[in-house]
Amino acid sequence: MAAPAPAPTASPPPPPAMSGLLSFASSRPYPPLPAPRPAAAAPRPRLRIAGSAAAAPNAVSHRASSSFSSGDRLRSLVRRGELDEALRLVGSARRPDAGTCAALIKKLSASGRTAEARRVLAACGPDVMAYNAMMAGYCGAGQVDAARRWCAERAVERDAYTCDTLIRGLCGRGRTANALAVLDEMLRRRCVPDVVTYTILLEATCKRSGYKQAMKLLDEMRDKGCTPDIVTYNVVVNGICQEGRVDDAIEFLKNLPSYGCEPNTVSYNIVLKGLCTAERWEDAEELMGEMGQKGCPPNVVTFNMLISFLCRKGLVEPALEVLEQIPKYGCSPNSLSYNPLLHAFCKQKKMDKAMAFLDLMVSRGCYPDIVSYNTLLTALCRSGEVDVAVELLHQLKDKGCAPVLISYNTVIDGLTKAGKTKEALELLNEMVSKGLQPDIITYSTIAAGLCREDRIEDAIRAFGKVQDMGIRPNTVLYNAIILGLCKRRETHSAIDLFAYMIGNGCMPNESTYTILIEGLAYEGLIKEARDLLDELCSRGEEILLDVHLIDVAFLTTFLPCSNANGGPFLRLPPEGSPVYDALL
DNA sequence: TTAGGGTTAG
């Protein structure tokens, strides 16, 4: 792989607001990374070496040593995600600790293993923490109906907290109507919904049915004798802003005292966010001025929000000015203040500036967090500096910021795209050895990289690994392998996999169809390609095909379809191209 | 239970 172009050495001078701030920007392509976070710099003593878990010291426990070590072992297994081993241990334990069981229930449910989670629940006996974990698990796994049935069986509705979990789970999956039904059940059973329950429901109602509907629920809540608090009102203020009615939100805020509730800084921040979304910068500034007078001075969130919005709109210099204002208001910038700017520099491909900015934040006592580093890793990979990314990844722990799944996924992807699949696979082994569980993104990345190298068999092994882990392969993973098969002209196998994908309940997307249609057309299987396109037609989706992959015969065959009402739209080849000439 | 980082695969 050719060495990437170095970062421009003659970068434009920093904007005025930055003058002096970045003066220590190094002339090296990449300045040394910031010094380690003092508090976390000292290497932590290793408590235990691999394989000696059972011999863990139990000096702090007064319980029987056997029960301590098994409980300790169970906790450690759950933490490491070794669920099968944890399940075996739960099966043999006399009375496993409810907190650990709750954690295991959560993890099992997250992998869709709710039946096994229920076995764990049975093993640990009645415990509200475990109940809530089960409820959250069902909801998280999308089995909200199972959650409701289970809830009814156990009559746990009487516990308001468990009900909140169910209501939150239902609301989180857009099942607001069911959540409201649970509320009715609660009221019938004289299980008093509290302000939290209502607030959750109000938030969902705002999202689903709009704030006007939420206002009705607010009245109902008051009728039932439940007094809204400022959080409740803020949820409604947010709902009003979400519908683009910021001025109505401001009006509502003004009337709050007449309901016996004073706005707080969060209330103003919500309105401010609405103003920023509408790019009403002057109004935002004015509101910030008012906040102090109204006894709700801006806090660091206020400034962070402004910085984030300005950066998103490409207004990096004003964002830098806001950053400089923060201390004048008695607030300290934190990593959330710096990260949007760091991201902006990365996006501008000004890596030297980004690195210098990182130094700046450290010199001001704000330590980069994992999001800062992940932002850098992404940018380094995208700018062709994968080796620097690998180096940074390996330095993270010493900087007091251990790499996470996303960090590894980012660099693994960078390596596969740089044609360094072997190193990517080594990194995969490394993360596993460090106890980080790869996820669907890790394996999709690896599979796509292997396919790019025509190593379809290995990619299919990665696919199998995902299934072994109890994770359902998703569309992205299927697409990667289908593309690999099509590129190898094994279109029939690709179609088989397509059928398998649908049979397993994984919905194909536009890319899936594009890949397959192009693959079929390449092999001259025009009829089959057409059938697939018709299927897309019936879905009424727009399809943009890469004309470079399509031969003239294929385009000519399909052209009439592009005029069909409501049918797919085939982007025409660029004017003057050979394909365009052949068509007209 | 409300507001803040448009960190990862196609």
Give a written overview of the molecule:
- With 584 residues, the protein is mostly helical.
- Among the domains are: 299-363, no CATH class; 514-584, no CATH class.
- The chain contains 31 helices and no strands.
- It has helices at 38-41, 65-80, 83-92, 98-110, 114-124, 128-140, 144-154, 160-172, 176-188, 195-209, 211-223, 230-242, 246-255, 265-277, 281-293, 300-312, 316-325, 335-347, 351-363, 370-382, 386-395, 405-417, 421-433, 440-452, 456-468, 475-487, 491-503, 510-522, 526-539, 552-558, 578-583.
- The chain starts with 37 loop residues before the first helix and ends with a helix.
- Residues 1-68, 540-553 and 556-574 have low confidence and may be disordered.
- It binds one DNA strand of 10 nucleotides through helix 10, helix 12, helix 14, helix 16 and helix 18.
Draw up the topology in text:
Layout: H1 38-41, H2 65-80, H3 83-92, H4 98-110, H5 114-124, H6 128-140, H7 144-154, H8 160-172, H9 176-188, H10 195-209, H11 211-223, H12 230-242, H13 246-255, H14 265-277, H15 281-293, H16 300-312, H17 316-325, H18 335-347, H19 351-363, H20 370-382, H21 386-395, H22 405-417, H23 421-433, H24 440-452, H25 456-468, H26 475-487, H27 491-503, H28 510-522, H29 526-539, H30 552-558, H31 578-583
Helix pairs in contact: 2-3, 2-4, 3-4, 4-5, 4-6, 5-6, 6-7, 6-8, 7-8, 8-9, 8-10, 9-10, 10-11, 10-12, 12-13, 12-14, 13-14, 14-15, 14-16, 16-17, 16-18, 17-18, 18-19, 18-20, 19-20, 20-21, 20-22, 21-22, 22-23, 22-24, 23-24, 24-25, 24-26, 25-26, 26-27, 26-28, 27-28, 28-29
The structure holds one DNA strand of 10 nucleotides.
